[in-house]
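Supplementary Methods S3. Complex input for the cobalt (II) ion-bound model.
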Amino acid sequence: MAKRKRRVPAGVGVSSIPASHPPVRPGLVSSQRRVPAGIERPPYASLPGGEPHPPVSSLARTPGELEAMRRTGALAAEVLIAACEHVRAGMTTDAIDRFVHDVAVAAGAYPSPLGYRGYPKSVCTSVNEVICHGIPDSRRLAPGDIVNIDVTVYREGVHGDTSVTLMIGEVDEHSRRLVAETRVALHEGIGAVQAGAAVSDIGRAIQNHAWRHSLGVVREFIGHGVGTEFHSGLQVPHYYDRRHSTVLGEGMTFTIEPMLTLGSPEAAMWDDGWTAVTVDGRRTAQFEHTLACTSDGAEILTRTAAGECAHDLFTEPVG
Ligand code: MF3
Ligand code: CO
Ligand code: CO
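Predicted complex, serialized as structure tokens:
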């Protein structure tokens, strides 16, 4: 998700909910994985700092790009489902990274996070109080953890970006509620999409759902245009801000990826420059789809050809 300037958090701190315990700490990051030369790389992946060019693509895709995004989106969904089937308690997040990397590459795709702005791994794994962009490392998943797995793949010149929050073993009641309502919040946001609606309608729908359930809405990371670029010009906040008055049009492609919190949505950054955590240490969950705006709604691009996605298949704890 694109980074935004900090604004006042609209927190709904719930003091009876304990901080996630014990806190997540950085582990060891394994050495850089390779992508075979035959696989088409996004332009940033060949630059030393991985800095993408300033976004230039128009907001709407061509029919040909949209077709490619359907195929790449379906691949992202397949990779995410396969990763979820693979995850077990006791597994390191590095093992998830290796798996996602190998499955993406075997499908002829480049794992978009690898080398993006210097990001060192092929997937993001965000555990418990980690909001997003957790770097896979030697930490083992434990029963009771929740982990967001965020897969982005690049093939046929376009990206597909999707994430799910998985529950590992027996998970406490607050976390279960957080995960379930974050999934619903994504769908409230998707329900606000149609040609002629404003971008701000999406955030309003998500925020209403979150606040109704006493959950916080993270403001520092937002949904984004996606297509030939990983993060294109369009910004999609998950909170209500009427200044985001851009009108949605048919063929516009973007993500919705709400991050909701049990406590305050205020975020802090680890000194790795990536890992965003809640300041109060309480847990957070996220779900993400890549969408295309249609005349009367949204087409979810990050589903398999059979219409499946990890969000629907992994509503119960695994491993
Ligand atoms: N997939 C993330 C998103 O939803 C972006 C990850 S950028 C990375 O926008 F560099 F951290 F991988
Ligand atoms: Co995204
Ligand atoms: Co993502």
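Residues 5-11 have pLDDT under 50 and may be disordered. The CA atoms of residues 145 and 168 lie 5 Å apart.
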